[in-house]
Amino acid sequence: MTIVTQNPQSYTTLLLIPTGIAAAIGGYAGDALPIARALMQVSDRVVTHPNVLNGAQLYWNEPNLFYVEGYGLDRFAAGQWGLRPSWRNRIGVVFDAAIEPELRLRHEQAIDATRATLGLEICGLATTDRSLGVTVRTADSGASWGTIAEPDSLLRAADRLRRETLAEAIAIVARFPDEDTDALAAYRHGCGVDAIAGAEAVISHLVVRELGLPAAHAPALAAIDPDPTLAPRAAAEELGHTFLPCVLVGLSRAPQFLRATPADPYRHTGDLWAEEIDSVIVPASACGGSAVLSLSTKAQIIAVESNETTMNVTPEAVGIRAIRVRSYLDAIGAIAAHRAGISPHALTATPYPSLL
After folding, report:
1. Which residues, in sequence order, are CB contacts of 72 under 8 Å at separation 6+?
2. Residues 6 or more apart whose Cβ sits within 8 Å of residue 323
3. pLDDT tens string 76-119
4. Is CATH 3.40.50 what the domain over 91-256 is classified as, yes or no?
């Protein structure tokens, strides 16, 4: 192995839209995917997380689009973990023992479909030895969160897949409680919070933290009746019986986590470290996350004002210097300017800030 010298012209963007905070874009199934795709035109690598890329039956896979679970993303941003691109992961799937037989069959058929149609390598299935006992909650702020009653049961099943099938990534399917009718109606009509997203994050964080493998979650939910007034941003979730396909596609090429340091002399070509993140795009009201704070002194933070959330943590509130832009279209322009070494003020008619 040889020491790798990074290409000085390579540019890497981190796209963050936190889950469960009713983001105007990214608060639904895969509705932030167009942003990630557009960013690929101005960045060599785009690092983001399942909340951005998961669209239930719909997904988009690019070689330089990194699918990184939130806990692993925080460790990466803090410089504690690196990312090693993977072009083929063996995926193990954990099923919650609480899933009813017919609902489980639907998920098993989705797995078979991805094997036969997309050629994914699913190396094994495991069922938890206890029902996971997922609960969902909504905080006073409007953000969603949740708990899992049997975390050890989940970890035993995931670890068994790692040891016995040599799984390199873990998909989890947990039975979620049927959603409150009013809250679900608001979400389906494009004006509510994703009530299950916070609990989903707890589940995937646990597996990544304990096993150090890429992981993502797909909820198992009872079918609901069609709604002719369904909002387009919520439509991807209602095309089939399961959310699993996008998770399996994302995990199939999710980068592996590295516990080494950037100073390791045996780095691989293409390994990615926090020091190589050039810009971070985040909603302007959601700048309090660990990854943003870790990278705020190393990368250009771009805060998008139009992506409103239930949070109220601005860059100024946490002492972060950021470029504020109105939209993601503006953010893409800001990245193009940053990559070219051009001050964004040179592209507007607004007065330059005083240097005094």
Report:
1. 81, 208, 214, 257
2. 300, 301, 302, 303, 334, 344
3. 999 999 999 999 999 999 999 999 999 999 999 999 999 999 99
4. yes
Cβ count within 10 A of residue 326: 12
Q: For residue 83, what are the β-bridge partners?
A: 257, 272
**pLDDT tens digits along 243-293:** 899 999 999 999 999 986 656 655 677 899 999 999 999 999 999 999 999
Rounded Cα distance, 99 and 103, in Å: 6
What are the structural domain ranges in the chain?
A: 12-85+261-347, 91-256
Instruction: Map residue 229 onto helix, strand or coil.
Output: coil
In the chain, DSSP finds a helix count (H) and a strand count (E) of: 10, 14
Instruction: Name every residue whose Cβ is closer than 8 Å to that of residue 247 and which is 6 or more positions away in sequence.
Output: 50, 54, 171, 216, 217, 218
Q: What is the pTM of this model?
A: 0.89
Specify the fold of 12-85+261-347: Rossmann fold (3.40.50)
